[in-house]
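Bench log. Compound arrived from synthesis this morning; before running ITC I wanted a structural hypothesis for how guanosine-5'-monophosphate sits in the protein. Inputs:
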Amino acid sequence: MNSLQITGMPNYSTLTAVFDRYHTFALSTHINPDGDAIGSQLALYTFLTEIGKSVKVFNTDAVPKNYKFLPFWDIIEGVKAVDTYRPEVLVVLDASTLERIGKKLSKTLLPIQKLVNIDHHATAEAFGDINLIMPTASSTSEIVYKLIKHYQAPIGKECALCLYTGLMFDTGCFRYSNTTPETHRIAAELIETGEFAPDEVYRNVYEQVPVAKLRLLSEVLSTLQVTDNGKIASVYATQDMFRKAGTNADAVEGIVNQIQAIAGVEVALCVSEMTDRSTKVSLRSQGHVDVSQLAAEFEGGGHARAAGCRLLTHYLTALTTLVQTAQRYMDQSTFKDTNGRKD
Ligand code: 5GP
Ligand code: MN
């Protein structure tokens, strides 16, 4: 592969030349897609469609209910729909690795000409022919925004709503350390352009919580453990809890953020027992431990302050291993994630 990694000073022109040159595009993103995954891909879909390209979107997992307010969400197809379709260009967004679009999809959806990788994860692999990887960007949506600007195309109303949703989600509603003055400036422009109400976007994304999720939350929080030094907090979720609450492992999303909010906690982790008995792990850090490195020890990845991985062990074994590893990282750490700020 003629691999060209673009980090630091990104070269948007390489990518916009691909937009000009080719006609058929497919877009995909990671499994269990979130606001940035779907927001960035639907934004790129609207842009490419507006400049006259033929675009299809294929994801392994269905669009979660709370993102069905986004324009064009229903054009997203599943793995089966790929069939014999071969786009000239495949753009993978927000995925870290090609496999994270789903094993089957990564083997069926094959571009004839170019594989493009757009991502902002610290642990992103340069798996594409063209890799637009910007770890300092708040979100993949921010990179797509800059790409469209570089193309000197106007950002349409629908595109603006999708980009804003991605930006809002990946910055935790403009609270996380990846939020910069620039993020706010982009958000302001998107609100003006899109003519949408930010409070409605918030309500759509965060306030569609099913009762079952709160039932699960109460179960999961009852497993809370904090290490003696008060720095590592952990919870676990089991198949039994999902059954009782009437939900599944997807409902665990966000719980880890709540335990990270405990005073004095540096690392928060939530482990979930999956149907195949493997363990899915969510990690959060206050900035003294790079949890993307910690996750990478278990073949996962993510960002310095939010990462994940999957272990092929029982959830309680995984929990013990992870707490020990987190403690080791804390003992050894001279790391301080300031996200470019001098604080
Ligand atoms: P969450 O805990 O919200 O599921 O994920 C937090 C971050 O870690 C996200 O940016 C997500 O992309 C990344 N992440 C979660 N699980 C995995 C994994 O198994 N592998 C990799 N490479 N990244 C992950
Ligand atoms: Mn993202």
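What the model suggests: Residues 294 and 325 are 7 Å apart (CA to CA). The pocket of guanosine-5'-monophosphate (ligand 1) is lined by residues 96-97, 121, 123, 282, 300-303, 306-310 (CB under 6 Å).
ITC booked for Thursday regardless.
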